Amino acid sequence: MNAGNIDTLPRERFPRHIAIIMDGNGRWAAERRRNRLFGHRHGINAVREAVRECRRLNISHLTLYAFSMENWKRPPTEVAGLWRLLKSYVQTELKELRDNGVRLNVIGRVELIPKDVRDAIDYTLRETAACRDMVLTIALSYGSRDEILTAVRDLARRVKAESLDADAIDEQTIDRALWTADMPDPDLLIRTSGEFRISNFLLWQLAYTEIHVTPTLWPDFSKKDLHAAILDFAGRERRFGLTGEQIKKGMKDEG
Ligand code: IPE
Ligand code: IPE
Ligand code: MG
Predict the structure, then answer these.
(1) Which domain holds residue 92?
(2) Is residue 159 a part of any domain in this protein?
(3) Which helix (H) or strand (E) holds 191?
(4) Helical (H) or strand (E) element with 97
(5) Residues lining ligand 1, judged by CB closer than 6 Å?
(6) Which of 45, 71, 100, 200 is catalytic?
(7) What CATH number should be reported for the domain holding residue 44?
(8) Over the stretch 17-52, which tens digit does the pLDDT of each residue have?
(9) Tell me: the pLDDT tens digits for 81-92?
């Protein structure tokens, strides 16, 4: 559903946090009879455009799924190529990110990433640490079950050390133990390339997220596709388990 024009959309209809599963680079390359890395290279242009446009639209959090734990099982040349691209992305984008107030953040098992890539990421993390206008989180070597498992182990250790009471564990305790501790949950999840699945991404955090699937392959994803996703989101009624009548009444009571 389309709710109108992005430039006239009221502020409160915008998602605060957009998460994207960037998928379809391989198929985009195959359509052009090129190798998969050709697709990933073009995917970087789509990343740049999405980051710019989210910043222009004052979206405060953008989270991009760039490399899953499962992606480690891909052919070594593809994996190595992806890390090369990522390293060059964080190096070449540093200035633009900083000039535009975008803080880089990374979630995932970063200790598994090649050292030179990690160093390049760390440098950009440090150099953008004071930026306040948008948080760009890249999920790298990321698996949501892995994240939850890590959090459970951490909480179990604290219970054992008697610094945490097992009965006092609530949803907030878990939120705070995840790698996304200081972020709001995503309001909108976009998946490109027409796949209707989550692929081990933010399983806990997506509990009430609106999902938008587009057939567009990631390298072709443009600001027009982003606008379409946001307008689709703006036309949804988020009920969080309540009835439609309760939601409408709540909106009226708020003014
Ligand atoms: C998404 O594109 C990028 C990564 C997972 C790193 P794919 O490489 O999964 O592309 P398809 O799904 O094979 O087309
Ligand atoms: C999901 O894409 C992971 C990323 C976008 C990084 P995949 O292409 O790896 O997911 P599946 O294999 O189709 O579920
Ligand atoms: Mg894929």
Answers:
(1) 13-151+185-254
(2) no
(3) strand 188-191
(4) helix 76-99
(5) 22-27, 36, 67, 71, 82, 193, 218
(6) 71
(7) 3.40.1180.10
(8) 999 999 999 999 999 999 999 999 999 999 999 999
(9) 999 999 999 999
